[in-house]
Design a protein that fits this description.
Layout: E1 2-7, H1 9-12, H2 18-23, E2 29-36, E3 39-42, E4 51-54, E5 58-59, H3 65-68, H4 86-96, E6 100-106, H5 111-116, E7 121-123, E8 129-134, H6 139-153, E9 160-164, H7 187-194, H8 199-207, H9 212-227, H10 238-249, H11 251-282, E10 289-295, E11 305-306, H12 309-315, E12 318-322, H13 327-334, E13 346-352, H14 364-373, E14 378-382, H15 389-400
Parallel strand pairs: 1-2, 1-14, 2-6, 6-9, 9-10, 10-11, 10-12, 12-13, 13-14
Antiparallel strand pairs: 2-5, 3-4, 7-8
Length: 403
């Protein structure tokens, strides 16, 4: 079963042993960040540092000035990894170790961009702006993301790309000393807090038959019992989440909002994938694979964007799906895609293998075998740079047991 490990450029640049250590895990591929959001990351084995602070979203390769000339939205450079092209340096070292390199590109998640251009961000039912979440209904945001994806994905030597947050982003953020857990939101609550009410989205709701002010009031009213602790969180899976949304908003409003958001997400994904394929053709990169980090529930948003399984597999070469957890969760994620598989479709089961981040590296062999029974064709391992030595040893042992 083909496996790929996620890697940051700073895991490899400056560490001559890194590429061989990753290859020795038993993976055939690495998914290497070329455009990534802000983060603070441990580097447990690097000879020069133990912590990297990526202060803002940035690209890890040189940009083409002509591509960005005259644009208000542009990618940000970084200064925390040495060299003009950390991605290229890391990719070359990994390829020399016998690993196939694919790019890892973050799209609709960029706090610096949203902070500098608040007019382009998601605005919730209370009027709060989410600077970490550019609104993908905005034409300028879509054009920026397509250009970024094309440039960051098709790097020299890259054989494919994995596009994260290629759709709606919402309340979920998990950074900046996050203090939003005082009231735990269920799936319906997360969705209601992620509905956007910027002028573009309000016009979109109206075009689909929903008065935007009525929808805004309905969303705020549905959330009030949750703030007061008077509404029990809905139990069940993705289908039950959406049933709860329809109950809270009413079917008419809920379905009109979903129609607009589905239309926007589909257009966004289509534009981004088309831009990447065009760039790959221009570089004559045959067999370049385009995968989306995804979730089979269209109402979900975040890093693993909600998609319609049939539509996304008709557009992209496959998906990367969150599979850390129990068997029921894996089945809920993988099963909806199985009917739409072709012999070339990639269904990559993504497992966190960092024990301190909720991963279960000691259970990887069994979890991966179960994912394969459910239709998974490949594995993704998050994250070869963040994991400690014991976690990596467990990964190495698990992969040696999988054919």
């Amino acid at each position: 079963m083909r496996a790929s490990a996620f890697v940051y450029p700073w895991d490899v640049v400056g560490d001559p042993a890194a590429a061989r250590r990753i290859a020795d895990l038993g993976v055939e591929q690495v998914t290497l960040a070329s455009a990534y959001h802000s983060t603070r990351a441990l580097t447990p084995r690097h000879p020069r540092h133990r912590v990297v602070s990526a202060r803002h979203s940035a690209v890890y390769h040189p940009v083409d000035p002509a591509r960005w000339e005259g644009r208000r939205l542009r990618p940000y450079a970084q200064d925390w990894v040495a060299g003009e092209d950390p991605y290229g340096e890391a990719a070359a070292a990994l390829a020399d170790a016998g690993l196939e390199v694919h790019s890892w590109v973050i799209l609709a998640h960029n706090t610096r961009l949203g902070g500098e251009h608040p007019d382009l961000t998601v605005r919730n039912a209370y009027g709060d702006r989410y600077p970490w979440a550019p609104c993908v209904a905005r034409e300028e945001v879509r054009a920026y993301a397509a250009a970024l994806a094309a440039e960051a994905a098709v790097r020299p030597g890259a054989r494919g790309v994995e596009l994260e947050s290629c759709g709606w982003y919402g309340l979920g953020h998990l950074s900046a000393h996050d203090k939003t857990g005082g009231v735990r939101l269920d799936g319906a609550g997360q969705y209601l807090m992620s509905l956007c009410f910027c002028p573009e989205c309000e016009a979109g709701y109206a075009a689909h038959g929903a008065d935007p002010e009525r929808l805004r009031r309905a969303a705020a009213a549905a959330l009030e019992p949750l703030w007061r602790g008077e509404r029990e969180k809905a139990s069940g899976g993705r289908a039950q989440e959406w049933e709860e949304v329809e109950k809270l908003l009413g079917q008419e409003l809920a379905r009109a909002a979903a129609a607009w958001r589905d239309q926007v997400a589909s257009a966004f994904q289509t534009e981004v994938v088309a831009a990447v394929r065009k760039a790959a053709e221009a570089r004559r990169t045959e067999g370049f694979r385009v995968l989306l980090h995804a979730d089979p529930a269209p109402h979900r948003c975040g890093a693993n964007v909600g998609v319609d399984p049939a539509a996304v597999l008709a557009l992209a070469d496959g998906v990367v799906l969150p599979c850390t957890g129990d068997g029921a969760e894996r089945e809920a994620v993988l099963a909806p895609f199985a009917p739409y598989r072709t012999p070339s479709t990639v269904l990559a089961a993504n497992f966190t293998v960092v024990g301190g981040m909720g991963g279960r590296p000691a259970e990887l062999a069994g979890d991966a075998a179960h994912a394969r029974e459910l239709g998974a064709t490949e594995l993704r391992l998050y994250h070869a740079g963040l994991a400690g030595d014991a976690d990596l040893a467990a990964v190495r042992a698990a992969l040696s047991r999988l054919d």
